[in-house]
TrEMBL record:
SUPFAM superfamilies: P-loop containing nucleoside triphosphate hydrolases (SSF52540). This is Sulfotransferase family protein. It comes from the Bacteria. Gene3D superfamilies: P-loop containing nucleotide triphosphate hydrolases. The lineage of its organism: Bacteria, Bacillati, Actinomycetota, Actinomycetes, Jiangellales.
Length: 343
């Protein structure tokens, strides 16, 4: 029996992959593949990270679900792991697929040893899978994600891969698969189809009816509105989701679809180059794992001396923001929020 452990990285197609696996849970089980249910978050095995890092460094969505009750998180994690052991012991399974992108942030020897001790009794082999994203793309996606529960803009800094990948290779994986996040090289641009081709090639399950995940990325203009809103009303509540922020983001998503102009945020060229060129571990990824990001060309600038800018204070410091489009978004979102709900 084999475990396929998908560890992210964050903002590299994880949600689409997890939702696809969740929607196929029953036909997968019939084919001898278990994608376990989670008692917390329906599409991923978030409790895997419990006990591997300090409570304050647990994923904020997990802490939010448990109202920061660390004892309850650990209790539920142990119960879930025991139920998973019993399910595997009492079933004729070929493969167990586990996925949580928060595992990418786990790289200490003690934590990875603990994770291996949890998983080793369950399977003969463990394949660890990670999709890695180009640093500047990852930085922009994480900046968006951060704004959902904070007004602070992420520092412009290099993205690191090596400690995590070497840690999993040494302590957890029988085989480590490092793959570039690149929709252009996936069947139909679909990470789920790519994952099945690579890691579940003999599983006879139709992927045609799997619902496509909507694009929920915010435009640069919407990002700017959210950041200013959080700064005005929730400046003392960073890393905390609030219902009103969620409503605002949903209204801005709807407005983004109606207002002319590009929805795709773009970093200032100086910021993009700073993140990519400062990320010297790109050279290690290329040389050790054969992972190359085509947009970086010949990698000539990677590793050169880079002066990183000070921490940005506004979205406008990192992205091109159209002020007229931003104003139009605000009024469209206000209309959306002011309309009474449909009966």
């Amino acid at each position: 029996m084999k475990i396929v452990l998908h560890i992210g990285m964050p903002k590299a197609g994880s949600t689409a992959l997890q939702e696809g696996l969740r929607s196929l849970r029953d036909p997968l089980a019939e084919a001898g593949v278990l994608y376990p249910k989670s008692p917390v978050i329906r599409n991923k095995q978030a409790l895997l990270v419990s006990g591997l890092t300090s409570h304050g460094r647990l994923p904020r969505h997990l802490r939010h679900k448990y109202n920061d009750d660390s004892e309850k998180i650990e209790q539920d994690a142990q119960t879930w792991l025991q139920q998973l052991r019993e399910r595997i012991t009492n079933s004729s399974l070929d493969t167990v697929v586990l996925s949580d992108e928060s595992l990418f942030r786990i790289n200490s020897e003690s934590a990875l040893t603990t994770l291996a001790e949890r998983l080793r009794p369950l399977a003969d082999t463990i394949d660890v899978v990670v999709y890695v994203r180009q640093p500047s793309d990852y930085y922009l996606s994480m900046a968006q994600q951060t704004l959902k529960a904070s007004h602070e803009i992420r520092s412009v800094e290099p993205i690191n891969y090596r400690a995590t990948l070497e840690g999993y290779a040494k302590h957890v994986a029988d085989t480590l698969h490092v793959l570039p996040y690149d929709r252009r090289n996936w069947p139909n641009g679909d990470i789920l189809r790519h994952f099945f081709e690579k890691f579940l090639p003999n599983v006879d399950v139709s992927l045609d009816d799997v619902p496509k995940q909507p694009n929920t990325s915010l435009s640069a203009e919407a990002m700017s509105v959210v950041a200013e809103y959080r700064r005005l009303f929730w400046s003392d509540a960073n890393q905390r989701f609030t219902p009103d922020t969620g409503r605002l983001i949903r209204a801005l998503n709807a407005a983004d679809a109606e207002v002319d102009g590009s929805r795709r945020p773009r970093l200032h060229e100086s910021v993009r180059q700073a993140v990519d060129n400062a990320s010297t571990e790109l050279l290690w990824l290329r040389d050790m794992h054969g992972v190359v990001f085509d947009e970086l060309g010949d990698y000539e600038g990677v590793g050169e001396s880079v002066e990183l800018p000070p921490r940005p204070e506004r979205v406008e410091d990192i992205c091109q923001v159209d002020t007229e489009r931003k104003t139009a978004l605000v009024y469209r979102a206000l209309r959306e929020l002011a309309e009474p709900p449909a009966k």
